[in-house]
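Let us begin with a simple case.
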Amino acid sequence: MSIDLRWTSLVCVVALVGCSEPPSMNDSGEALTETSGDGDGDGDGGDGDGDPATGDGDGEGEALRPNWHQDLAPLVHENCVACHVDGGIAPFSLETYEQASAWAELVREAVDARAMPPWGAEETEECQPPHSWRNDMRLSDEEIALIDDWVDAGTPEGDPAEAAPLPEPLSLNLDNPSVELSNPSPYVVGGTSDSFPCMVVDPGHTEDVWLTGVQNIPDNDLVVHHVLTYIDTNGASDALVDADGKFECPGGFVNLNGAVQISTWVPGGVPTETPEGVGFPMPVGAKIIMAYHYHPTGAGDEVDQSGVALRWTTEEPEVAAYAGLAGVSFTTPASLLPGENDPGPNPLFEIPAGASGHVETVAINIPALVPPIDMFSIGTHMHYAGVDMKIWIERDGEEICLLHTPRYDFNWQRLYDVDAPVGEMPQIQGGDTLYLRCTYDNTLDNPLLAEALGDAGLDAPVDVGPGEQTLDEMCLILFGVASNLPVDQFF
């Protein structure tokens, strides 16, 4: 049977805090347990003789603090409810006191381990980026302490009449899209091998525009592995599409004359948005190509008809945007450095079965004549064996760390957007060497890999090389840059 590890990563917080048995659920999906969460079955959230509505312990005086209505609800609604809502991508809701108190101990474990909210970019001893991130989802130490104190107090509800105003949850949708488009036809994902179709849609714009936002909208997240989105500027795809509006994309990449990449979507991804004054040029008549990597569940056919939302402006921005990726994809590049397990004198991207802590490193030399280029988004990409990735630049003997994801989780990848205007962003320039260091755990102690092996009918790890299949591996930087230069020639 296939198990969706997005449930596991939320409920069990895999590899971080162990696995707790979730409460029993009723027909509405709510946990069947005491609403106060104090664990003694008396339903008061206090000392056993209080008012269950306030959790004040004796039914008199002010409500215990912190409590749900005055303290926890604003925190949870701002940081959790975007996903933990009825019908959301998370497996349970945290919208109400009854829901949140039932899951309180698990929530505490997840936030104490900093596994939730999901955010992979961390400051570590070896990486202190000289920039901060937009929409940083991490809770502060004070917010984590507030959750701990609430659980320790028995999850008091407080008085609804004293409830604090609830902030709007973080939106996972693109603001003010100009158009939303569905794939021209459904696609059936089955069998045991990954598939790589390209879907082509017509945005319908009647004048030259510049894209400032792109959101891939997965329809069936059980099978959508990742999506690369391109602008087909000169209609190169017209001769390739079939009657269903699709064509095959070997490896999940587009290599057509005039095709420009604009975004990379992976599980956990948020919309791609350009900084102020930056946009992707999309001339009139251009099409949008979405290159899909589908991974079958192993449990029968699944159908997907995903889509895309686009936001554009008709005013030409000062700087053009470009998005792309570099590193190891499905071949061993010349930029790969020798590794500890290489069988011969030449660098080889291979992760032996049973290897833990295996490291592969890529060094990309930037041509000397390249002027400084602003990087507005940065991401890391590996598959299920990947556990740690670091990206940095070496310039004139100095190391500048761009991004470290030391607890890399395939199910919670994303692009991290730099919180700075153009001109103050991290830059890459001629003479730099861009390093990618990818660490892998190719053992059954890696729960995500173990599940992927099981889906493929395997009960033991195998040697892993570069490739497009889920059980292959990659070591890639995903990036968005602001430049009027032909950036694709530099990586």
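The second case is a distinct protein. As before, the sequence precedes its structure tokens.
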Amino acid sequence: MNTECNAKQLYFQGLGRRRVEADFDGGTITSDAGALLLREVELANGFIESFSGCFTDFRDQRYVEHSVKDLVSQRAMALCLGYEDIIDHDDLRRDPLFAAICGKLDPLGENRRREEDKGKGLAGKSTLNRLETFGVGTQENQHYKKISCDEKEVERFFVDSFLETQKEAPAEIILDIDATDDPLHGHQQGRFFHGYYDCYCYLPLYIFSSDHLLAAKLNTANLDPGNECLPEVKRVVEQIRESRPKVKIILRGDSGFCREDLMKWCEENRVFYLFGMARNSRLVLRIAAELKEAEREYRKTNLAQRLFKDFTYRTLNSWSRRRRVIGKAEYLGKGENPRFVVSNLGREEIAARELYEEMYCGRGDMENRIKEQQLYLFADRTSSATMRANQLRLYFSSLAYVIMNELRKIALQGTELARAQCHTIRLKLLKIGARVKVSFRRIHVSISSGYPYQNMFSQIRRNLKKAYPQLC
């Protein structure tokens, strides 16, 4: 007699007299119940709707089941939840809660046209792949490639989102600019070897203001970011001044952006700058007395010493004028550590020590924001063959960052996650197990009783109600 068995049943080591076994028979269960909070943030701000407006859909709408907004929402929300690969969506599209978060009115997929699609509320990997792979610069007459993306509108979207989320117009905006390496492991278009990073890579350029992302531009590694950044800086500054004509703008970057063209443009366009400078023998000579004094104090106290000197300086050939330079004469246990910055901020506005220690050193937080995008929102998943497709992938990652950052800034105030990075927020707040029941009148989500952050979750919901009363 044949024994009836379940191939999907799993057995584990027993616990005392009890057997431990598992099966995939739990019914409609999601691991992403916390994404309900992301949906509240999106409904209040309309990030995905605005981003979707940057696309033109040339498909025959009689046969379209997933709008551009549906596809964009599906891709961005999946990145927020940690699903970086397109192939993940072949399983995700069966999750009714994920479909509801993406705005699908038929989360169970009961009304799909094809019988094989029933029970799948969202698009599969092939549909999403067409959006990503052919999304930028697509022509209307291309076969199967019927969704195009206006890159200039996408660029405007990120600056507009920054401006719209500010409750009050600030008197001052500091723009942090930096580039980072995005290693490549295939033969993508625009692939070049970079000697400093010792790999084939792209060099995406980012512009942030505090923790707000304003620009993410994919560049090839054969181009120097310092020489190529001026068009992006111009575009961002001009767009900010369209709605904030009197705001004081300060551009901040490391020594890679200390270039004559950029500094000259800032000086001619009422933009202040603060850049690091690569040290040389002439600069070190200008602070030689301060370095000696710092060394003497170190010998007396055995504590690190730091002195500052404020002076004007001009390079032998590359600068068109003399500029204000602040030299840091520092002596540590390992010896001298001279550093320099250049700025057009006046001495009457800010003293040398404050300019260096409080303003310039503050730019280091931008590196954490770039790290968040690359490691936790998968901005480095640039494995498509073309630059335009990889740029669109970077845009999707940037959209996911905008949503996650707004959740952090508004909803997590007063909680232990107020300063947490994206992966911590995802682990503690979004990845929650729950049973989902979908009926004609409601979608009921039964969150696990063992969830350890129930009180904080309730507080976050109260914060959302307070910040977005229109949702209540």
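DSSP finds 17 helices and 19 strands in the chain. The domain at 152-376 is CATH 3.90.350.10 (Transposase Inhibitor Protein From Tn5; Chain A, domain 1).
Keep these points in mind for the review questions at the end of the chapter.
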